[in-house]
Amino acid sequence: xxxxxxxxxxxxxxxxxxxxxxxxxxxxxxxxxxxxxxxxxxxxxxxxxxxxxxxxxxxxxxxxxxxxxxxxxxxxxxxxxxxxxxxxxxxxxxxxxxxxxxxxxxxxxxxxxxxxxxxxxxxxxxxxxxxxxxxxxxxxxxxxxxxxxxxxxxxxxxxxxxxxxxxxxxxxx
Length: 173
What we know:
The protein has helices at about 1-20, 130-140, and strands at about 25-30, 40-45, 60-70, 75-80, 90-95, 100-110, 115-120, 125-130, 145-150, 155-160. The chain is about 15% helix and about 45% strand. The longest helix has 18 residues, at about 1-20. The chain is of the alpha+beta class. It starts with a helix and ends in a 13-residue tail after the last strand. Strands 1, 2, 3, 4, 5, 6, 7, 8, 9 and 10 form a 10-stranded antiparallel β-sheet that branches. It has one domain. The chain has 2 helices and 10 strands.
């Protein structure tokens, strides 16, 4: 009977943390087959926007990703969508070698303070990459909200960074 009550209590706790939006972070890695170089990272659970977008973007979600580095520990932060997010309000920037990226403003609320960041993405990419100083501010925060403009409106996403593990604890770093 006591065992059953403990199991039911644990299930209720897990359910409530999922409902409350608690985000778990995990370690990951991928290896480039051509170069043999391994990228290590820490990533969150998917988080949903504060308001659902219209079809066909009604299932849009994203997760935070911390890029780990062998020498300094942290290399940067990006926000990765589960589908092409159809971002708007961007400028096309031509880089060396005729490479083109999109740069867009991203408002952030970090531990109650507001910031204006610049996010970058390659055409067709599902990932917004933040510059080093912007990444640093995001990564020192405990509660982060990112406000992003899509073709169907502006939405924000919440990330609980308080339980994010550190890159230095990633195996092999």
